[in-house]
Amino acid sequence: GGRVDFQEAISWFIGVFDGSSSSSSAAGGVSLAEVYELWVRVRGRVIAPALQVAVWACMVMSVMLVVEALYNCVVSLGVKAVGWRPEWRFKWEPLAGDDEEKGGAHYPMVLVQIPMYNELEVYKLSIGAACELQWPKDRIIVQVLDDSTDPFIKNLVELECESWAVKGLNIKYATRSSRKGFKAGALKKGMECDYAKQCEYVAIFDADFQPEPDFLLRTVPFFVHNPEVALVQARWSFEFCSE
To answer: What is the pTM of this model?
Structure first.
């Protein structure tokens, strides 16, 4: 419970680095030279080794990143050189039967989820692209999961969904009381709906994604003909528009 004197503390540290616990210099006071000497010893025996270990660790991780980047480049160039396509490894055949516009029970039910959060600039484009997917209208459900906090944007998104519903699209507009889990939480909540449980496959597009009309026709057959396939991810492309 006694007070530790500064001079005694410095002397004790010097004694530790000297290999002894002597505090004989405490009575005579501590000079700036002794403090600097202590700092040099701490820096050389504690800080420098720790920094050296950190530098080596960073170098190892840098090498790992370079190796990974080179590997990805080689694989990408190899795929382009041989013209590899997923169909080489997985069976793919177009879904047989009636025209998709006429409907058909042989087409599996698909749920298209679009999570949104104040997406004023892109909500029309993403909803429109999802509603224009080539698939029997009685075998697809478009689910717009709106977590928007702006009432104005929320109203616009709901009106857009209603406009597509009038055109005969099976589109559902869903909101929730909290943003728990953010967009991932919205997707999970959307799967709890009764109509979602009737769907065999789920397609997820972020609010700024615009899938090509034949997206489902090109991807769903991988699931139908390959029971071991659980996920299909398509290539992204970017378009720059100027007004």
So the answer is: 0.68
